[in-house]
Amino acid sequence: MEKARLASLAPSETVRVTNPGGSSPFVFTCDHASNVLPAKFGTLGLPAADLSRHIAWDPGALPVATRMAEALDATLIETRVSRLVIDCNRPLDAPDLVPPVSETTAIPGNSGLSDKQRAARVELAWRPFHDTIARIIDGRLARGQETRLVSVHSFTPVYKGKSRPWHIGIIHDDDRRLAATLIAALKRLAGVTVGVNEPYSPADRVYFTLERHARSRGLACAMIEIRNDEISGETGQRKWADLLTGIFSNLEPGEVKGSRTSAVGKSVQTAS
Question: What is the pTM of this model?
């Protein structure tokens, strides 16, 4: 696992866009791409080892998303600040926007923040990330470019002592235009256990980026969650990126234009 880095980042540097003019209909986001802590936050009171754990980021998600974006000529938008500073995949009123606890680990540096300190974190990373996504999508739509939004995440194999058997999960709400096709293709793969709204669902408050930028515009969308032990190294990252690229490459525009059926909710959890 990559060690967390301390860096001096201005708001303009806390989000990165790769291939903004991509020709693919897909736009990828990686909401928990980084475990970087801007230097002014120190280690948030945590031992250094904790900053390489899943509580700080989604290990392996960015390399997978990057390889997919390159292969598909797609746009990728990523955060460059740890989710421990602020979780860009949460609404501004979420209790875990600046998480006081992640899984079972208390985050001392997030305790007792003033409204001013909280607002500063929003302006540092949350707002630039969402403003950038909005700008990219609105520009594409103004050009008449078909757009489908996909967020790429990873999840820990064991959460609060409970094992998670899924190799990959596809998260969706009542709009299944994209998710249904992904799920069907993944279930045809031998030896792959596919979670449908597992290990999370929109009821767990993990669907915010897609709700804000895709659902609000009527765009097809889905969330991908890959178990992080599957993508802890380059071999696994390449395997899953290539599998998913093959599936996305074979999607025809008409396949994601259809009826919507209801999604199944589940109980609330927090960190992936």
Answer: 0.91
